[in-house]
Amino acid sequence: xxxxxxxxxxxxxxxxxxxxxxxxxxxxxxxxxxxxxxxxxxxxxxxxxxxxxxxxxxxxxxxxxxxxxxxxxxxxxxxxxxxxxxxxxxxxxxxxxxxxxxxxxxxxxxxxxxxxxxxxxxxxxxxxxxxxxxxxxxxxxxxxxxxxxxxxxxxxxxxxxxxxxxxxxxxxxxxxxxxxxxxxxxxxxxxxxxxxxxxxxx
Amino acid sequence: xxxxxxxxxxxxxxxxxxxxxxxxxxxxxxxxxxxxxxxxxxxxxxxxxxxxxxxxxxxxxxxxxxxxxxxxxxxxxxxxxxxxxxxxxxxxxxxxxxxxxxxxxxxxxxxxxxxxxxxxxxxxxxxxxxxxxxxxxxxxxxxxxxxxxxxxxxxxxxxxxxxxxxxxxxxx
Lengths: 202, 172
Fold this sequence. Notes:
The complex is a heterodimer. Chain A is of the alpha/beta class.
């Protein structure tokens, strides 16, 4: 399975998501997502590692009508494997959990994952109760994962092998722009919270 | 009025929708009361840092969550508190079991199964309030048998906070 670049994959997510899908990105994807999406329904944050799956799970519990896509990292999910059990045992049928598998802690310098990393993550997710879990870099599998979640057939996981390269020299380019000011960190949280409340009331 | 009744009244007044729980003994009656409550969903989690993230996601979607955890778990969850409800200013009452509370007289802690576990809990008790003070999470003590107004004030402060607020209790 040939890995994608993270940038190419994020472009595919931006092209596949529905306009009102909520996309929450963290770690490598959290830094880069603003350069690939201009949606009002985006939120990025960087810490704490491993929290985005639980955070997205909480959102689906409050708003089961929303499609929630979380973009996680392999090192990140290894810091919160218990969330697989919490999500798998829940009714989060509109949650898509994407894990970018780059075999290391990219944004801290590429330190390797311990042991076999996330190579067994698909089996773990299925055993924990996810209704589907696939490891693939194919665009068709990404589209199929979105279709399942839009149909309420989640929680679903998609593990995507990506190249380990992380160009930290581009951080300013990724984060010092209008979209990042709207969707990154505390301002992004408050803006999205208010937007979801407004849309829900309408 | 019992502390449990006061707490449930405060939760109903604040229109709490979810109690996110990580296993602990001190909040057992609160857990049981919430599981019976028609308007409060209890969400189980595997560790305290995960519970903080679930609650933060609930709040993003317009829900009104509370947390329960042990003070042991408070220490585990500090990075989640820092990065989510503290940084994002999410109002979040947290009922924390206060094992080893220093003011409880220094008596040995006797567990019905494990026996004398004093050495295992003294440090947790000694760390609890200094750690909360160090990270700027406000806290108040809830005590069965204390003046009802004092407990009501503590609960009101927690539900009015614009961030996490610890309610320390030895049992409820």
